[in-house]
Specification:
DUF1826 domain-containing protein; seven-stranded mixed β-sheet; Jelly Rolls; 2 helices; DUF1826
Amino acid sequence: MTIAANRYASARLSDNLADLAAIFDPNVELCLYRRPPIADIAGYLCRAGRDGLPGLGWRRVLTPGEAVDAPLADLPGREALYADIAWLCDLYATLTGCDRVGARLEVLSGAMCPRFHVDRIGLRLLCCYQGPGTEWLPDAAADRARLGVDTQSGLVRDAAAIGRALPFSVLLLKGAGWPGANGGAIHRSPAPAPGEPRVLLALDAVC
C-alpha cells in the first residue's frame, strides 16, 4: 500500500517496491521504499557489535547475480546480510541498467556527512541496517543557495519537512550528475547513538 502522498512532490514515499520506479519522474529527486526489519540481519549486527566484531566495513565492485563474499564476522545471520546486499545490488542494477555496482558497507560511530548536501553522482541507493537512517530535505522546503555556504542558516525553510529513512528502508537519491536533475536530492547523515554504530550500505553505478 502506498503511503499518503508527501506534500513535497520531489520525494515519493511508499510501502510498495514497484514504486521505486517513480525515481524516473523528472520532478522526483528521492524515492523511499519502506520495508520491515529483517530479524536475522538485525540479530547478526547486534551480536557482532556486542562482541566487538563489526569491523570498519568494506568496499567491493559487485556484478549482479554473483554471491557476496566480504570480510564480515562469521556469526549467525551473516548469510542473510550477504543475501540482502546481493538482492539490493540486483535491484539497483535493474533500475540503472548498469552491469557493475560499487558497494560500500560503512560502520560509522559518527555522522559521515552531517551537513545538508547533494552528492556529485547520478543515482545512489542507501540502506541503513542499524542506527538512524539518512535524513533528507525536500526541494521546496530548502533554499538551495545556502548549500555549500559555511553557515547553513536559512537553508531549511520548513524544519517539519525533514524526513528520515527508517532502518532497512531502501532509499534512492538523485545526485547532481543525474541527467535532467533539478539539482539532486538534499540529504545528510545523522549521528548514531553512543555505543551503537550506524551500519549503512551505499550502492553506486560503475560504468
